[in-house]
Amino acid sequence: MIERVKFSTFLIFVALWVAAVYAPVTHWAWGGGETLNFGEMDFAGGTVVHINAGVAGLVVALILGRRKDYGKTAIKPFSPVLVALGAALLWFGWFGFNAGSELAADGVAASAFLVTNVAASLGVIGWLVAEWIMFKKATLVGGASGAIAGLVAITPAAGSAGVEGAIILGLVAGILGFIGVSKLKPMLKIDDSLDAFWVHGLVGIWGSIATAIFIADYAMAENYDMAAQIVSQLKAIALTIVYSGVVTAIVFYIAAALTGGGRVDEETESKGLDETVHGEKALNL
């Protein structure tokens, strides 16, 4: 929703969204209660973070509508250098995100650290291979996006997948994210500015389902029922999509009503929010 939402609307929306959407979904997955908990496996936030936020981003993008130049002129990343830097920081931080979810310095944490790196690496490869096949180019922004896709996919499975599973998870994630951004997004003409749904939501769905499939030997219980676990994952995914979609729309309309409409005027959008709203102008790095 960047480049078109009011800053005041954004602040109120974020506060409401964390309380009304993020907190309940977190509790269902990790709160320990039985209500609306389907026994899903989500080690570090597949449904809680990625599907949840990806769906929310898609809903708000639909409510706000497309940027005025969307589909008319090419809207390219502001700076591939900053994209790569941001991806590098995310990749590094994700080790704490995934391995740290074990809340202990043990073998599971070490394995989560390892498979996180493997999936991210294969995500890069998957995206770049798909990009080369489709456009005969391999881009820095594409590689960065593939890394994030791989990280997203391994997040729910970091505590249970082995290296072999992480390879497949990451590779498919990179390819799936690329297809979402390059094919599905233009087909649906949804202006998801930062590809939140395609890289986090869509890939998050893949990762959550694959969590039930790629279980390492050390994590495999003797009575493990893969089919039943896949059903549990699908139930949790469906609940997250429906709840996040509906409640996100409600809280955004509330935030927009409190701020006189959620979208900036056409002149502000044309000049850019950095300069008109925040009084800053970015250097062209």
3D architecture notes:
This protein has 285 residues and is mainly α. The chain has one domain (7-29, 38-66, 76-278): Ammonium transporter fold. 68% of the residues lie in helices and 0% in strands. The chain contains ten helices and no strands. It has helices at 7-30, 46-64, 80-99, 107-135, 140-154, 163-188, 196-211, 226-258, 266-271, 273-278. Helix 2 (46-64) runs antiparallel to helix 7 (196-211) and helix 6 runs antiparallel to helix 7. The longest helix has 33 residues, at 226-258. It is globular and about 65 Å long. The two termini are 23 Å apart.
Whole-number mean pLDDT? 93
The structural domain count equals 1
Low-pLDDT stretches are none
What CATH architecture label applies? Orthogonal Bundle
Q: Count of DSSP E strands?
A: 0
Short summary:
The protein has 10 helices and no strands. It has 285 residues and is an all-alpha fold.
Features:
68% helix, Ammonium transporter fold, mainly alpha, 285 residues, 10 helices
